[in-house]
Amino acid sequence: MRCExxxxxxxxxxxxxxxxxxxxxxxxxxxxxxPGFECENCGMEYQSEEVIQEIEDQxxxxxxxxxxxxxxxEELMKQPRLLKYNYFRF
Length: 90
Known about the structure:
By secondary structure, the chain is an alpha+beta fold. The protein has helices at 49-61, 73-78; strands spanning 11-21, 28-39, 45-46, 70-72. Strands 1, 2, 3 and 4 form a 4-stranded mixed sheet that branches. It holds the Pfam family YokU. It comes from Halalkalibacter okhensis.
């Protein structure tokens, strides 16, 4: 797969740990086992725009005060939403 950073065809799908600031800015959390890519050429680890948007939307739509310091990606996505949709995304 083509790397979004160096544009070489060396990127492979991985699961990794990322750190995300909550929408209210009060703290950051660790999200483990997050889908992503790693490039063997440049060494960059990154998430697709789709995964980034999923995380951002989920964190905006759930009660983040109930989150621990660390959560698995799948567990995060299963958290009950306070709203059905992110009405602020254009």
